[in-house]
Amino acid sequence: MRVHVADHPLITHKLTVLRDKTTPSPTFRALAEELMTLLAYEATRNVRTEVVTIQTPVSETQGLAISTPRPLVVPILRAGLGMLEGMVKLVPTAEVGFLGMVRNEETLQPETYAERLPDDLSNRQCFVLDPMLATGGSLIAAIDFLFARGAVDVTAVCLIAAPEGLAAVEKAMEGRGDVTIVLGALDERLNEHGYIVPGLGDAGDRLYGLV
Ligand code: PRP
Ligand code: URA
Asked: Of 129, 138, 191, 196, which is best to mutate to test ligand 2, by the most ligand atoms within 8 angstroms of its C-beta?
């Protein structure tokens, strides 16, 4: 498994505002989207392309175009929805599938409540979006789901991760398909409630309000 932790002052600046508990939902939503766009640049570094021939106004030349089948972007509902626009802005030809997961706050185990994905993901490059990688349970379940449908190449983009969760994903993915994790920041630890410290609190609630 490859891990890339962003190291850019603009990303750190935006994450700092995102973490601030006084940042209101509209600003939080705008920042989550902007951060995703910045991280998409790194996350798509290995997006599959093919050589195409085009005519410029001056001559014929060869360039690259994103290959088919097109990349599949999978936001994990609810909080991953806050990153979707930031990704499709940069890769407008991507297809989008959905996985709905909620973590049981007693057991910290993820439960899948919705799924809208192609049945066959063989030969598809998949990009999973979820702002928080805490215990890693949700991301492991999401990647397992995609592998079970035939995907072999999954890149997950998370705004903030805990070292414990990242280690759990790494262990679960040993000997599995091709997995890359792109992070905005790797934080200190998880607290006793499974929240990332310092983190930003509950990403879904901060994006969309309490449920
Ligand atoms: C959050 C977050 C991840 C998950 C991370 O979602 O968006 O999906 O928790 O925790 P884990 O790494 O310990 O599994 P949550 O379950 O709060 O649902 P929501 O997006 O609907 O708010
Ligand atoms: N889910 C969140 O939204 N935040 C955390 O810190 C952990 C899980």
From this structure: 196
CATH number at residue 80: 3.40.50.2020
What pLDDT sits at residue 152?
A: 85
Specify the pairing of strand 189-190 against strand 196-197: antiparallel
- Report, as an integer, the average pLDDT of 65-74: 96
* Ligand 1 atom nearest to 103, measured from its CA: 16
Tell me the CA–centroid distance for residue 182 and ligand 2, in Å.
17
pLDDT for 76 beyond 90: yes
Share of the chain above pLDDT 90, in %: 96
Interface pTM, i.e. ipTM: 0.98
Choose among 143, 80, 83, 140: nearest CA to 109. 140
Rounded CA separation 26/201 (Å)? 16
Burial of 4 (0-12, 13-18, 19+ CB in 10 A): middle
Residue 76 structural domain: 2-208
Considering every ligand atom shown, identify the ligand nearest to the alpha carbon of residue 79 and give its number: 1
Ligand 1 center from residue 211 Cα (angstroms): 13
Q: What's the residue count for the chain? A: 211
Specify the number of domains making up the chain.
1
Binding residues for 5-phospho-alpha-D-ribose 1-diphosphate: 78, 103, 130-138, 202
Which pLDDT value is given to residue 57?
98
